[in-house]
């Protein structure tokens, strides 16, 4: 008996949900956030790449009972959830009921900052525990390959969740027996390393059960979408024959690929059939030939089954399975592997599929079921993939299973993959290589399959034929790598899609060399197992207290005040605010060109859709269509000046409709030549913004427009009619200082026009096109130095790529020049900065704001000096330190310098001399892996060079019950500002922190505030809080006796009509920067630090691993050492991303390619240093800041240059072994292609012509 229904039934956090004929395109994330008001799951990327939307999905299986897996809600359709149970972060635990141990561990170990990614990490860990209540440390380390964090640097997250590991009783703290976890210390030193369990042990018996109603009947189910309508099918028998057939249907299992096609490729699939519940397609069986894997079996389950099989059978028999297991470690993420299938991977027919090369190399067999009811086997050979995303299968074929074969004693197979990042990244080039040898070790047969070298997989047929019959020795290797074989088999034309022609061709030889070496080692039984990766970390600091009050919390490592809300999903961010009555949603009509005239705009098709209300353009701006410089348009007018520029807004009654309608607006362009790079700007003589000399500048004023002022200008309203309220910010690292105005202001115009609330939510790809990047630079220098490597003179020109408008570029360039003048003592210095206008999005302020560029330039110069002088870079650094009392190039005296102390302490912490010797010894013993070591010093000026910004304000109110509220002129974005200000108020008022809260920042309460930037806000606002609280203490002095409770004091004071409200204000004595003067004081003080990093590079692929980083920072007397350590680690890892991973890819026509997590790679957990040690320097404090503290948000980012320079040092060692000893330039970021091609060896030398052609006709340009 067959049953057909259009009702979907599933559970969300234990509550039954029934949906009648839901929209097949509706994602689980949208359903949770908009329909269920469960906003803990965040919309981070919309591409399944960041993990912020991770949820747990559960199903019932009659054999294994409940099966739980993590899933990306943003790419999971609601239609796939029939009979499933969904658990979100809200269902795990909450503050009112009970916080789950996972959430508590994360909070107590300071694992949150901005908190936007936190729910995703909680759900990933929670799902792991539901599947494995006692995971190993390795299980935990590998569990977060699908979760990204921009703030923390991952260390505290990993430390928090390591408490659940089997090894939790082991103590790996760098302090050893003196670890603070082992008992009372003789002093106040605290080190947070791996430690024993502090909280309740996880008890899996206390978790909710699977909803009994969803336990399936003994029947088969299918769900699908036909002609836009959802259907579920139930049958009394489990036969595959009853599956609905349709020749135009697309069969869906995990849906990870199709949803991306429909969302970003505008591909339409009118008929879809889900095969994920068909029993025959969900089985794995062992046969005499190999392992049969059902078409709908998830890759996670495949991997688990193969591991079990490997452990039971002889090694030689399971070599195919081992190759697949190793490749699956780098395939997607846990979330993706939990739903994606092998059959789906095959049918995607991608030329860079990670698994397909192994399938062809092993000659796997695909068994398909035709619509006529017959089955047939198809070998996966060179004829299987026929073109880009095409296979030899018929439209009526359905894959039933794939058979992976057993291997014979003489067969060997290995898979290779090269990507920008180890985790969650698409291949640049991959390969599957299989060989069968005779007893005499001659090649009986061989298959060499490569991906990423054409629009489909390619077999090196000529090479394969030439190697058959050859003995497996070095002569075979030389033959295969000769120009007539592998290079001839695998050509790439200049300008090919993806670019990196020389690198990709070099990789093909590198992969074969690795394969040859691997097989040779196995023949010699000389296989050395890889060392298991173990992450270790320590944080060493003093817990200090000013000792002024009994209840004061200054100096204590208390947790972030919002941490519990973040961990439970209760923290409210802007798009979490409930929809208001009459609210409209924006669909953005944006430029698809970088430089063009707009000849026509036609919104008629969009306006014809029911539910679309209006179309807003520059013609609707009531006053001024510019908001900063004359070129900063709210809406584009007759011209567009960069891709992604906002042309207009479609307003509709739902976000989905607005976005759909925006795509229907027709914009016709007359395209103009685009200038994208600095080099093209110079060659084309494009008009630039400004020329700055170190001792002179044409205009030193940067008119920063906060949103209130900008909205007043655009709308033509006085500022007192505009209130800006700042909600919680997720990941604010500069883009939200100024460039966010190009999002806020169009929305304000739309609201002004319609008189209704308007919400604008950017998709991640548009956000990256609109907000802009950090400013790329290009520098030319001449440097003079003594034979002792003491720098005596520097002439330097720096070009800044500013984008389409000036924005904050002038201030950024000034900051770079000031940083150059304080990083290295140079008696004679002349620096010129040229700001280049280009047709890319206006560049954005970003953490460090000009300082990282200056640090990179100076490190490059000193490295060059070291090479010519024959000295170590560390010696050259020490020769050129600024010392106490020295005067900088801009005329400020260095006071209270602790640079030498930081340097010495860092050498001690890192065991520098021992490490250096170990690196040298390793390099002597290894040809194709090299290590490098580098130290970096830091002198960082704190303060705004523009005097007017150096101010802070705060309002403190005390209520009748004794509770206190602070409203400050600063923004909390995860950096701990609110927590620190509560600690300061607690210290001055002498009340517990529990009595105090901070209300949201708003301009009608605390007006005319400075930006929250430059690492200066805690200094400025902290002193303002002290001022306000001291005013209140004066008022309360006569009521406060030693024994009187605080609440009684307040009651009495209010009874006496005391005003318990005080406004605090602070303006430090900073003169600012005047470029016409020789003597200046642009900074309030300097902060100092040092770092030492060790890396290991793979000379054949360009991959690198950060083995260790030891970092020492002078933070004065820390207001909160746990928060400061978190800022240090997070900033450092972000700097690591800047210099080693995060490459902005743009075509010469100005089209951004790196527009999401799929092709813009920030650091992941696997990329952080294996050993990461942070120590706060013991100092006398800083008398110029609140409670002797120092700024910390930005400076540590610059110390990550130590990793970049260590990579360069390792490349030097590789080049030396090939006979190349001259100086070379390494551009940042140090991506694998740059590292590999810089190593220079016999493989790279074969593709010199390709590299020249690549530079002449690049697929993407260097900004």
UniProtKB/TrEMBL annotation:
[2Fe-2S] cluster 2 binds at residues 114, 117, 149, 151. Keywords: 2Fe-2S, FAD, Flavoprotein, Iron, Iron-sulfur, Metal-binding, Molybdenum, Oxidoreductase. GO terms for molecular function: 2 iron, 2 sulfur cluster binding; FAD binding; iron ion binding; oxidoreductase activity. The active site is at 1194 (proton acceptor). Its cofactor is Mo-molybdopterin; FAD; [2Fe-2S] cluster. Residues 214-409 form the FAD-binding PCMH-type domain. Residues 6-92 form the 2Fe-2S ferredoxin-type domain. Signal peptide: none annotated. SUPFAM superfamilies: 2Fe-2S ferredoxin-like, CO dehydrogenase flavoprotein C-terminal domain-like, CO dehydrogenase ISP C-domain like, CO dehydrogenase molybdoprotein N-domain-like, FAD-binding/transporter-associated domain-like, Molybdenum cofactor-binding domain. Substrate binds at residues 815, 849. InterPro entries: 2Fe-2S-bd, 2Fe-2S-bd_dom_sf, 2Fe-2S_ferredoxin-like_sf, 2Fe-2S_ferredoxin-type, 2Fe2S_fd_BS, Ald_Oxase/Xan_DH_a/b, Ald_Oxase/Xan_DH_a/b_sf, Ald_Oxase/xanthine_DH-like. [2Fe-2S] cluster 1 binds at residues 45, 50, 53, 74. Belongs to the xanthine dehydrogenase family. This is Xanthine dehydrogenase. The gene is 106056891.
């Amino acid at each position: 008996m067959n049953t057909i229904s259009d009702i979907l039934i599933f559970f969300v956090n234990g509550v039954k949900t029934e949906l009648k004929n839901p929209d097949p395109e509706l994602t689980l994330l949208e359903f949770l956030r908009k329909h269920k008001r469960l906003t803990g799951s965040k919309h981070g990327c919309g591409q399944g790449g960041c993990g912020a939307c991770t949820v747990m999905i559960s199903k019932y299986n009659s054999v294994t009972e409940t099966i739980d897996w993590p899933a990306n809600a943003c790419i999971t359709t609601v239609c796939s959830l029939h009979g499933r149970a969904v658990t979100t972060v809200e269902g795990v635990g909450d503050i009112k009921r009970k916080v789950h141990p996972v959430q508590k561990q994360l909070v107590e170990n300071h694992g949150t900052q901005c908190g936007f990614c936190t729910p995703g990490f909680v759900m990933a860990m929670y799902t792991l525990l539901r599947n494995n209540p006692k995971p190993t440390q390795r299980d935990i380390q590998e569990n977060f390959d699908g979760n990204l964090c921009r703030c923390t640097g991952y260390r505290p997250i990993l430390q928090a969740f390591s408490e659940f590991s089997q090894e939790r009783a082991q103590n790996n703290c760098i302090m050893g027996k003196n670890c603070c976890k082992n008992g009372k210390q003789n002093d106040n030193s605290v080190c947070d390393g791996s430690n024993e369990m502090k909280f309740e042990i996880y008890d899996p018996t206390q978790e909710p059960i699977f909803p009994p109603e969803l336990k399936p009947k003994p029947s088969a189910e299918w769900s699908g979408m036909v002609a836009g309508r959802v259907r579920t099918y139930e049958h009394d028998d489990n036969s595959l024959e009853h599956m609905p057939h349709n020749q135009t249907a697309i069969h869906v299992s995990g849906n990870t690929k199709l949803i991306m096609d429909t969302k970003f490729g505008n591909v339409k699939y009118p008929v879809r059939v889900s095969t994920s519940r068909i029993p025959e397609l969900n089985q794995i069986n062992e046969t005499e030939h190999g392992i049969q894997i059902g078409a709908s079996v998830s890759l996670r389950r495949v991997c688990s089954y193969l591991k079990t099989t490997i452990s039971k059978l002889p090694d030689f028999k399971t070599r195919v399975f081992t190759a697949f297991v190793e490749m699956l470690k780098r395939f997607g993420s846990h979330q993706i592997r939990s739903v994606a299938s092998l059959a789906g991977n095959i049918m995607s027919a991608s030329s860079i599929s990670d698994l397909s090369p192994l399938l062809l190399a092993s000659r796997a067999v695909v068994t398909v079921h035709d619509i006529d009811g017959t089955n047939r086997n198809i070998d996966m050979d060179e004829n299987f993939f026929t073109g880009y995303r095409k296979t030899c299968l018929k439209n009526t074929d359905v894959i039933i299973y794939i058979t992976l074969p057993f291997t014979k004693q003489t067969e060997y197979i290995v898979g290779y993959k090269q990507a920008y990042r180890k985790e969650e990244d698409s291949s640049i080039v991959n390969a599957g290589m299989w060989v069968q040898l005779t007893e005499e070790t001659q090649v009986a047969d061989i298959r060499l399959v490569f991906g990423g070298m054409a629009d489909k997989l390619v077999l090196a047929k000529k090479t394969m034929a030439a190697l058959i019959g050859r003995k497996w020795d070095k002569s075979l290797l030389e033959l295969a790598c000769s120009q007539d074989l592998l290079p001839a088999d695998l050509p790439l034309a200049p300008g090919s899609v993806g670019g990196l022609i020389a690198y990709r061709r070099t990789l093909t030889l590198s992969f074969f060399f690795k394969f040859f070496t691997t097989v040779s080692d196995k023949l010699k039984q000389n296989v050395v197992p890889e060392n298991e990766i173990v992450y270790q970390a320590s944080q060493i600091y003093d817990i200090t207290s000013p000792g002024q009050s009994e209840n004061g919390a200054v100096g204590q490592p208390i947790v972030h005040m919002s941490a519990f809300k973040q961990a439970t999903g209760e923290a409210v961010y802007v798009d979490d605010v409930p929809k208001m009555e009459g609210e409209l949603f924006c669909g953005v009509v944006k430029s698809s060109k970088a430089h063009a005239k707009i000849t026509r705009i036609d919104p008629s098709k969009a306006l014809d859709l029911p539910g679309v209300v209006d179309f807003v353009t520059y013609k609707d701006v009531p006053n001024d269509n510019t908001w900063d410089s004359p070129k900063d348009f709210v809406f584009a007018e007759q011209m567009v000046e960069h891709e992604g520029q906002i042309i207009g807004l479609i307003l509709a009654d739902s976000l989905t409709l607005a976005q759909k309608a925006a795509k229907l607006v027709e914009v016709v362009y007359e395209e103009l030549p685009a200038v994208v790079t600095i080099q093209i700007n110079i060659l084309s003589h494009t008009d630039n913004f400004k020329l700055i000399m170190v001792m002179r500048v044409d205009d030193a004023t940067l008119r920063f427009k906060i949103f209130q002022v900008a909205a007043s200008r655009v709308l033509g309203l006085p500022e007192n009619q505009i209130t800006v309220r700042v909600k919680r910010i997720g990941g604010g690292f500069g883009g939200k200082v100024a460039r966010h105005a190009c999002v806020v202001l169009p929305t304000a115009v739309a609201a002004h026009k319609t008189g209704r609330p308007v919400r604008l939510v950017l998709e991640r790809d548009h956000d990256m096109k609109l907000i802009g990047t950090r400013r790329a630079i290009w520098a030319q220098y001449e440097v003079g130095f003594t034979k002792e490597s003491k720098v005596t003179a520097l002439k330097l020109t720096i070009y800044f790529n500013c984008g389409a408008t000036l924005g904050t570029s002038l201030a950024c360039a000034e900051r770079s020049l000031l940083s150059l003048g304080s990083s290295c003592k140079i008696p004679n210095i002349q620096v010129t900065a040229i700001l280049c206008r280009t047709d890319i999005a206006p560049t954005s302020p970003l953490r460090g704001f000009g300082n990282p560029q200056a640090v990179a330039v100076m490190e490059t110069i000193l490295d060059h000096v070291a090479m010519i002088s024959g000295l170590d870079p560390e010696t050259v650094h020490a020769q050129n330190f600024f010392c106490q009392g020295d005067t900088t190039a801009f005329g400020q005296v260095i006071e209270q310098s602790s640079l030498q102390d930081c340097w010495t302490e860092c050498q001690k912490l890192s065991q520098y001399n021992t490490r250096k010797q170990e690196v040298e010894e390793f390099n002597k013993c290894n040809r194709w892996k090299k290590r490098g070591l580098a130290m970096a010093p830091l002198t960082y000026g704190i303060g705004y060079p523009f005097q007017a910004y150096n101010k802070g304000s705060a309002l403190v109110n005390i209520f009748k019950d004794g509770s206190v509220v602070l409203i400050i002129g600063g923004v909390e974005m995860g950096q701990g500002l609110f927590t620190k200000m509560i600690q300061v108020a607690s210290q001055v008022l002498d009340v517990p922190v529990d009595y105090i809260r901070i209300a949201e920042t708003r301009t009608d309460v605390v007006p005319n505030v400075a930006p929250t930037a430059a690492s200066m806000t805690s200094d400025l606002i902290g002193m303002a809080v002290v001022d306000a609280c001291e005013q209140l203490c004066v008022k309360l002095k006569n009521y406060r006796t030693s024994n009187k409770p605080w609440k009684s004091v307040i009651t009495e004071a209010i009874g006496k009509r005391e005003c318990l409200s005080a406004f605090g204000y602070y303006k430090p004595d900073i003169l600012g920067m005047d470029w016409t003067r020789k003597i200046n004081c642009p900074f309030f003080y300097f902060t100092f630090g040092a770092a030492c990093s060790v890396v290991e590079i793979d000379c054949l692929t360009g991959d690198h691993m950060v083995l260790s980083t030891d970092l020492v920072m002078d933070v004065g007397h820390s207001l909160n050492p746990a928060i400061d350590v978190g800022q240090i680690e997070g900033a450092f890892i972000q700097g690591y991303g800047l210099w080693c991973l995060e490459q902005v890819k743009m075509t010469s026509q100005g089209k951004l390619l790196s527009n999401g997590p799929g092709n813009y790679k920030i650091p992941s957990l696997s990329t952080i240093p294996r050993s990461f040690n942070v120590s706060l320097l013991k100092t006398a404090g800083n008398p110029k800041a609140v409670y002797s503290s120092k700024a910390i948000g930005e400076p540590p980012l610059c110390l990550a240059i130590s990793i970049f320079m260590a990579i360069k040092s390792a490349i030097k060692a590789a080049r030396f072994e090939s006979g190349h000893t001259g100086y070379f330039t390494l551009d940042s970021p140090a991506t694998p292609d740059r590292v590999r091609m810089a190593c220079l060896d016999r493989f790279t030398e074969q593709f010199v012509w390709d590299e020249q052609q690549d530079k002449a006709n690049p697929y993407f340009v260097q900004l």
